[in-house]
Amino acid sequence: MNKRFERCVVVGTGLIGASLAGAGKARGLFAHVVGVGRSLANLETARERGLIDEATTDLFPALAGADLIVIATPVVTAVSRLHELAHHAPDTAVFTDVGSVKLPIVTEAKRLGLASRFLGAHPLAGKAETGAGAADPDLFRGRRVVLTPDDDTPAELVEAMRRLWTTLDAEVSVMDAEEHDVVLATSSHLPQMVAYALAATADGAAMREEIVRLIAGGFRDTTRLAASDADMWVDIARLNREPIVEAMDEFSVVWDDLRDAIADHDESAIRAVLNASRKFRREIVPS
Amino acid sequence: MNKRFERCVVVGTGLIGASLAGAGKARGLFAHVVGVGRSLANLETARERGLIDEATTDLFPALAGADLIVIATPVVTAVSRLHELAHHAPDTAVFTDVGSVKLPIVTEAKRLGLASRFLGAHPLAGKAETGAGAADPDLFRGRRVVLTPDDDTPAELVEAMRRLWTTLDAEVSVMDAEEHDVVLATSSHLPQMVAYALAATADGAAMREEIVRLIAGGFRDTTRLAASDADMWVDIARLNREPIVEAMDEFSVVWDDLRDAIADHDESAIRAVLNASRKFRREIVPS
């Protein structure tokens, strides 16, 4: 049996927020969805597409009567605005978010005394396009969603959110926020930094123009992530600083070993890195 | 006017060799193509598909009467067998190859006194599948092909090869072999090493199993190259050692700066790398 929320307020109706709103409505999880945003045009798109029932730029009035508040703003905004959100929401409302770094918002929720009403979530879903126009109620189908409770989170809240995401055909993992952030530092933030550094290396190379002319598919694939929004990644680098720096240092150890193996003609050491890498790749993308 | 070769011997009928054979036949550049290989099954595929006219595993007899010899074996084999090839080929035959590292084979050709008859080529074309079954006479359409003459290469040979590739709708660049290898070290070999090191870092991480579970599209794209054949890349690392090590060192400088900027909360330094990277990415993949 799925709990149905009577008034779900989605703060931030970008790709993820609008997709979740539409998905919850389509599956009957949300009776009435209010979208809150800054861009009237984007809100109107969400409403016209039937992803939300009601659109407003005025946050606090919208919170009245809400039983579920989904924070789907950029992650820095989510952390900094949680206080006012909580202050203006009904005492009975529960909160969740969809941010890609979890410890800062979980810590802030705890500090605000929201431990019993807040459960962080991170759906590993996205696409190149942004905004409500790109939203898709099927965006979460088959995707992983991480829930990050701590010892103070009520089991019923974890179960309610697990049911919500499972109803949207997502695969739910549960781990604490710190563990999530350490894992994501390697699984998501590290490839991002690698893509940036690779493109920046080519950009700064003495033979830049010839490099641009001779770039082929391999370089393009390996730097696809470098096209991502820079502001968002500056924020993530700040919010998940320590795990990212640690993951980057682990990469450096592998990198220096590989570099030395090549410089020293140590073919068995080169082969060891290449084979470990290919085996790992086959594990994550079975052919 | 295109020069037509009467008897083209393609040594190595894998993806590139068989594609070139079929493309040259289709455009009337090669009157008769002999494919030479080790695998009878692969040769038979090439012949059945009409990419070659004649198939043999016996190299030296095949060379009799050849006016064009295309070396399309793995690059290490190409360098090591150039001597016997030259010894058994008619004195009037010209040679080209398709390897991704050029200085070793160009140097070897010169050492063997073939400077007037050898012109290195590197078509930047490929796909995930290998062998004659995956060959495609349109593989080179719109792709870049680098020709690497030196001061001793006759202008007519450069022009003949330029016409050949242009007729196959490739875009031809001309540069010396050393420059080619330095450029490719960054445009092609560096992303390869980055992909290997990224996958190997995740493979060696303390939270490996959780990382595997939470990997999404970004990590997969950034490590796509790690699925490549390890033997080939061990060879390339050896043959283009110095430029690769230099490119890896340039990457390390960018990487360490980015790591320190994140560790030191230096947002303007982080943003500088991210913006340079995004700008470069937009230049190589205009949206």
Q: CATH superfamily assignment of the largest domain in chain A?
A: NAD(P)-binding Rossmann-like Domain
Mean pLDDT metric of chain A = 95
Query: Main β-sheet of chain A: number of strands, strand sense, barrel status?
Result: 8 strands, mixed
Sheet with the most strands: spatial strand order of chain A: 3-2-1-4-5-6-7-8
- The parts of chain A where pLDDT drops under 50 for at least 5 residues are none
Question: What is the strand tally of chain A?
Answer: 8
**Computed Rg of chain A:** 21 Å
First-to-last CA distance of chain A: 38 Å
Number of domains of chain A: 2
- Largest interface, counted by CB within 8 Å of the partner chain's CB: A-B, 89 and 90 residues
Helix share, percent of chain A: 40-55%
Q: Specify the CATH architecture of the largest domain in chain A.
A: 3-Layer(aba) Sandwich
Proportion of residues in β-strands of chain A: 5-15%
Number of helices, counting only DSSP H or I runs of 4 residues or more of chain A = 12
The CATH class of the largest domain in chain A turns out to be Alpha Beta
